[in-house]
Amino acid sequence: MRIVLVGPPGAGKGTQAAYLAKNLAIPHISTGDLFRANISQGTPLGVEAKSYMDAGNLVPDSVTIGMAEDRMGQADAAEGFLLDGFPRNLGQAEALDAYLQGKGLKLDAVLDLEVPEDEVVKRIAGRRICRKDSSHVFHAEYNKPAAEGVCDVCGGELYQREDDHEDTVRKRLEVYHAETEPIIDFYRAQGLVSTISALGKVAEVTERAMSALGGDA
Ligand code: AP5
Ligand code: ZN
């Protein structure tokens, strides 16, 4: 299956993607995690992406599309993938369609996670992520690690993301409404969108997501 996960910052895309990718046996491809890995390794791509990310802006398409295509072209993604955070504007959505068409492939579903803005703010304020792998995501109150400040998955140190401070979060929400939301209509016109509520326990949301995708959690 080839799936796109869409929703505002803090909706729980990364959290759900970890479970969905496991259930569906497809890789979780997060452009945010790819950028953060490049930043921690100090690559030129990471250096370029960091200034945009810290300001809450999108990294330019000229950088992002090539990086996403490289990742989708890897062997483990041949049978399908779960995209998280890509595409994020109409240009990227059109580029993805063209990329898949060129390979005789298409998307199967777009899962839209709906969550009110006050909940987003609470989720982001308490988010803690792993220094070793930013796809290991916790919450100081709602999704606590077994030992405070320590990643359950790999033992790495947990910290607060640089772009999770209040001003940047507000900017990211603005960018989401202006640039990312229009892709939902773009995909709705292709009959691909299922919208589910992302409120409730993590496992409840996973169940809703799996049933929207036509499977069992
Ligand atoms: P990215 O990393 O994609 O961030 P985002 O879209 O803003 O999404 P988040 O990671 O903030 O939230 P999420 O929905 O994954 O929520 P999570 O599961 O962590 O992008 C960051 C930046 O990179 C962008 O601003 C941009 O600069 C750049 N970028 C990335 N992709 C790009 C692209 N395609 N083009 C251009 N630029 C790009 O959950 C949030 C918190 O809530 C966690 O603490 C979690 O434990 C908790 N939580 C989750 N589910 C629940 C629940 N059900 N109940 C209670 N708490 C919950
Ligand atoms: Zn970890």
UniProtKB/TrEMBL annotation:
Record-annotated Adenylate kinase active site lid domain positions: 127-163
Q: Chief location of this protein?
A: cytoplasm
> Annotated Gene Ontology MF terms?
kinase activity
Which compartment or compartments is the protein found in?
Cytoplasm
The catalytic activity of this protein is classed by the Enzyme Commission as 2.7.4.3
Reaction(s) catalysed by this chain, per the record, are: AMP + ATP = 2 ADP
| Pathways involved | Purine metabolism; AMP biosynthesis via salvage pathway; AMP from ADP: step 1/1
Binding positions (ATP) = 10-15, 127, 137-138, 200
Keyword set, alphabetical order: ATP-binding, Cytoplasm, Kinase, Nucleotide biosynthesis, Nucleotide-binding, Transferase
CDD domains linked to this entry: ADK
Q: What class of enzyme is it?
A: transferase
- Segments crossing the lipid bilayer: none
Tell me the function of this protein: Catalyzes the reversible transfer of the terminal phosphate group between ATP and AMP. Plays an important role in cellular energy homeostasis and in adenine nucleotide metabolism.
Q: Domain comment, in the record's words?
A: Consists of three domains, a large central CORE domain and two small peripheral domains, NMPbind and LID, which undergo movements during catalysis. The LID domain closes over the site of phosphoryl transfer upon ATP binding. Assembling and dissambling the active center during each catalytic cycle provides an effective means to prevent ATP hydrolysis.
Tell me how this protein assembles. Answer: Monomer.
Protein name, as recorded: Adenylate kinase
Organism listed in the record: Streptomyces lunalinharesii
Lineage per the UniProt record: Bacteria, Bacillati, Actinomycetota, Actinomycetes, Kitasatosporales
